[in-house]
Design a protein that fits this description.
The chain is of the alpha/beta class. Helices cover about 40% and strands about 15% of the residues. Strands 4-10-9-8-7-5-6 form a seven-stranded mixed β-sheet, sandwiched between helices. The protein has a four-stranded antiparallel β-sheet with strand order 13-14-17-16, with helices on one face. Strands 1-2 form a two-stranded antiparallel ribbon. Helix 1 runs antiparallel to helix 2, helix 5 packs antiparallel against helix 13 and helix 15 packs across helix 17. It starts with a helix and ends with a helix.
């Protein structure tokens, strides 16, 4: 009993020391349960002094018995570099989903690429790290870190300005990354690739440079309710300045943005459609090529947020025929601090500068300036040189595997995740049901009845070393539309394995059991 009490006390102390505090229900129930347990042993424990806001009309039922069900379990860490769980653990978890798919076995893409990612081979809170927050950011391969180290050790210099060896080398590698990226998304010209700080800045670039120049009062901008905040807020700001009107497409009964409704909303008043390719919350994939065709029929442009598609599948901008497309490096095995905008050359050439300063000019006089051609026109100041070169290395790495191979593997693993989650009691998974004709992206957002998603994420991390995301995922309008204020999200990448999913499901069931014990 003493050992059990000590374990509960240690967990509670760790919990209350978190920078991000769990929900008040979790703290109250955990505190009461710990207090009841330790009282039986005559042990004093100091509860937290910070204020807990609760609903005074809500009555909590705490077990009176000192024997409290705590779902604490530790998975023995693997000594293998690949962190593969034992055959016994695998066989016991196979009952979750009765599926024997060789594509997810020991020779899978996930198993063969895991050694390239050093961060994955560690313990977190005493358990093997299971990283399932890839929709927020991906982990980085050794090849990327070597490329960054090589730049800073061997040829660190500013680009486009010096004639000495280091500057020439840095410039060549920086521009080579642009060419690699153009090839990666099949852009006709590398000059159609503009490097930005991130995808958010790329969307703002289009909104302020193209939007302020082309939108007039009563013009319409069409978006969906499932857009990321970075695709909504810039257009709200521009609409306030221009008098344009934002119109939003809702969801179907399958919790997918209604592309048929989007088509109906298009008119000659529509000037631009701003839409995601893959939803970061619903895992739905939109028919971008069809949407682009419909928009072009009424003379509208299309901006595609491809942050959740470029890292996971083949994206061909010529086939999609999108006018603008944005994505971020850090979600595709690259460094933070750099993203990109693809824009058709005729559109970029007609757009005014977004930021002013060095590098984006042709000539500067005291009373006026002339501007460089794209992409330099939109890359004011010293860019993120090392990060851009690192992005080039990440593209080399992904291209070496093959994006179609990555996509095919993720489809299998994502279906396994979805099916496995269905075995969890009282769960609702958002977005479409996968089928022969409907493919989900490699993520699942979900809620479990009467358990706050932040409590789920906290317990998974603290007790099982499983990293998922909780909150609104920068999609508050979508959550409001669904009638919830937050959700939990597990998101995969090609270095994840079937064992990762099995460990997550086992830990999630333990989490549900833990919180259910307070009812």
């Amino acid at each position: 009993m003493c050992a059990e009490v000590d374990r509960k006390k240690n967990y509670y102390r760790r919990l209350t020391s978190l920078n991000t505090r769990p929900s008040s229900f979790f703290l109250m129930t955990t505190a009461s349960a710990v207090a009841a347990a330790v009282a039986a042993e005559g042990v004093a424990i100091k509860l937290p002094s910070f204020k807990i806001t609760t609903n005074p009309t809500r009555h909590l039922t705490i077990p009176a018995s000192p024997t409290v069900r705590f779902g604490f379990s530790r998975f023995p860490p693997s000594s293998s570099c690949l962190s593969i769980v034992s055959a016994g653990a695998s066989s016991s978890s196979s009952s979750v989903v009765n599926k024997d798919d060789q594509k997810l076995g020991p020779g899978s893409l996930g198993h063969t690429t895991r050694p390239h990612f050093p961060i994955l081979h560690q313990e977190v809170n005493g358990s093997r790290l299971v990283y399932l927050d890839n929709a927020a950011t991906s982990q980085k391969p050794t090849a990327l870190m070597k490329a960054l180290q090589n730049y800073y050790e061997s040829y660190n210099s500013n680009v486009h300005r010096g004639i000495h060896f280091l500057s020439a080398k840095a410039t060549n590698e920086y521009e080579l990354a642009r060419k690699k990226l153009a090839t990666f998304i099949n852009a006709p010209e590398s000059s159609e690739i503009v490097f930005t700080r991130n995808a958010t800045e790329a969307i703002n670039l289009v909104a302020y440079s193209w939007g302020l120049s082309n939108l007039n009062p009563e013009d319409e901008v069409i978006l969906t309710v499932a857009e990321h905040h970075s695709a909504i807020v810039p257009w709200q700001l521009v609409a306030q300045k221009t008098g344009a009107i934002l119109k939003f497409v809702s969801l179907t009964s399958d919790e997918v943005p209604d592309s048929a409704k989007l088509r109906e909303m298009l008119s000659r008043k529509t000037k631009i459609v701003v839409t995601h390719h893959v939803s970061n919350m619903l895992a739905s994939v939109l028919p971008i090529d069809e949407i682009v065709g419909w928009a072009h029929d009424v003379g509208a442009k299309v901006l595609v947020d491809a942050c959740q598609s470029v890292p996971h599948m083949v994206v061909d901008v010529q086939r999609l025929n999108a006018d603008f497309l944005v994505a971020s490096s850090h979600k595709m095995c690259g460094p933070t601090g750099v993203g990109f905008l693809y824009g058709k050359s005729e559109l970029l050439s007609a757009m005014p500068p977004f930021l002013g300063g060095g590098e984006m000019i042709s000539d500067v006089f005291l009373d006026h300036s002339t501007y460089a051609e794209p992409p330099s026109r939109f890359e004011a100041g010293t860019p993120a040189i090392g990060e851009t070169i690192g992005l080039g290395a990440a593209i080399d790495y992904l291209s070496g595997i093959g994006m179609q191979k990555i996509h095919d593997y993720e489809v299998e693993l994502s279906n396994y995740l979805y099916e496995s989650l269905q075995s969890v009691p009282n769960i609702h998974i958002y977005g479409p049901i996968p089928s022969q004709t409907v493919q989900r992206a490699a993520l699942c957002s979900f809620n479990i009845k009467d358990i706050h998603p932040t409590d789920i994420a906290t317990f998974l991390d603290q007790q099982h070393g499983v990293a998922i995301r909780s909150g609104h995922h920068c999609a508050q309008p979508l959550h409001r539309h669904l009638g919830v204020n937050a959700s939990a999200r597990a998101s995969l990448y090609f270095y994840n394995t079937k064992e990762d999913v099995d460990d997550f499901i086992r830990a999630l069931k333990d989490t549900v059991s833990f919180f259910s014990s307070f009812k």
